[in-house]
Amino acid sequence: MHKHEAGALQVISPKTSVPFVMISVTVWFLMFLLCPGQLRAQLGTTANIKHIVVGRLDCEEIWRQFEEAVVRQSSCNVTVEHYRHMFYSMPQTWPCDRFLFWSKTRTLMHSYAAVVRHFWTLEDTLAGYMFNDLIWCGQEEDSGFDFSSCPEWSACRNHPVYSLWRQASQNFAEMACGNITVLLNGSIVNAFSRKSMFGSIELDSLNPHRVNYVNIKVVTNLEGPFIETCREGSIVDLIQVLQSRGFRWTCTDKDQILMILQCIQNPQQSSCQTCANSLSHRKSLTFK
Ligand SMILES: *[C@@H]1O[C@H](CO)[C@@H](O)[C@H](O)[C@H]1NC(C)=O
Ligand SMILES: *[C@@H]1O[C@H](CO)[C@@H](O)[C@H](O)[C@H]1NC(C)=O
Ligand SMILES: *[C@@H]1O[C@H](CO)[C@@H](O)[C@H](O)[C@H]1NC(C)=O
What SS3 state is found at 158? Predict the structure, then answer.
């Protein structure tokens, strides 16, 4: 399936409509995030990237700084430092108690954020919004982007796309304050992974003096598998890290709203018929 999506993208002609390209890129990018290293396709910079980015925010200045960071660099040699000027130009502060972090729960996170309207995710920040689902890289001896191929994310230490997201994630986590929510996937091994953006960047950037509570929500697919809970698997490691750094936390693996959201999308599921039943046995852990 991965190969198919990637292959489909390569035959898109320049005349293909932007929405189609964006949908394809979304799928590809998602696969890329989920299984780095498994993809061998060489995709180039997203077609019309300038129009997409400038169209999203109408800010040529930020585009100029972005371009400056990326072009004329070997495509594996763009560090977070290169984006420094760009991020200085887009300072943002957010109200406390609204920060939503997630890992391997992208689809559910979108419906959750849509229903609980006050949540903010990385994708709602300026940088997140402008560069969501795009791919880019430059070339050492050329003042333009490389539209024919970009290296794999896992193939280089300083990938231009990865470096931007790393800095954006770090900024987002450093700003986090009040109660924050972390949405993790209990249907996979290592729901909390030190290799994920949350585990490698965001967690370490959270400030225990700014954050009041880290509220962890572990959610499984309705049909299972049921692999990790607040008391089993990698979530326990996460809780240990939080505790050692002085955070207060809560953890639930039976969140009502999340379960209802999943049932709305899939009402035939047997676990949804007994949904009301199981909700009354809701269990959650709270520690101070
Ligand atoms: C990567 O960047 C550094 C510093 O900007 C430079 O010294 C080095 O030659 C670059 N490497 C490649 C492969 O372009
Ligand atoms: C958990 O991860 C699996 C595998 O990536 C995915 O198919 C599933 O939708 C995720 N579940 C939730 C609740 O996000
Ligand atoms: C923060 O989280 C704690 C623990 O879940 C809860 O008791 C408290 O009411 C929350 N505060 C706000 C402002 O949401």
Answer: strand
List, chain by chain if needed, residues with CB within 6 Å of any ligand 3 atom. 97, 179, 212-213, 215, 250
Task: Reply yes or no on whether 177 is catalytic.
Answer: yes
Is the pLDDT at 193 greater than 90? The verdict is: yes
- CA distances for 110 relative to 104, 116, 124, 219, angstroms: 12, 10, 11, 14
Mutate-to-test residue for ligand 3 from 212, 217, 248, 251, highest number of ligand atoms within 8 A of CB: 212
Domain annotation covers residue 23: no
How many structural domains are present in the chain? 1
Q: Is 148 exposed, middle or buried (0-12, 13-18, 19+ CB in 10 A)?
A: exposed
Compute, in angstroms, the gap from residue 60 CA to the centroid of ligand 3. Answer: 41
| Distance in Å, CA 113 to ligand 3 centroid | 18
Question: How far apart, in Å, are the Cα atoms of 261 and each of 5, 105, 115, 176, 219?
Answer: 28, 13, 9, 25, 11
Q: What is the CATH number of the domain that holds 101?
A: 3.40.50.720
Residue with the smallest CA separation from ligand 1 atom 14 is: 74
- Check if 150 is active-site: no
More confident residue, 160 or 20: 160
| Residue 20 belongs to some domain of the structure | no
Q: Which of 185, 192, 266 to mutate to test the pocket of ligand 2 (most atoms within 8 A of CB)?
A: 185
What's the whole-number average pLDDT of the chain? 83
pLDDT, tens digit, 9 for 90 and up, residues 199-221: 999 999 999 999 999 999 999 99
Name the pTM for this structure: 0.80
Q: What is the mean pLDDT of residues 233-252?
A: 97
Q: Among residues of the chain, what percentage have pLDDT more than 90?
A: 64
Domain of 183? 49-283
Q: Tell whether 18 is covered by a domain.
A: no
| DSSP tag of 148 | S
Nearest atom in ligand 2 to the alpha carbon of residue 262 is: 13
Is 124 inside a domain boundary?
A: yes
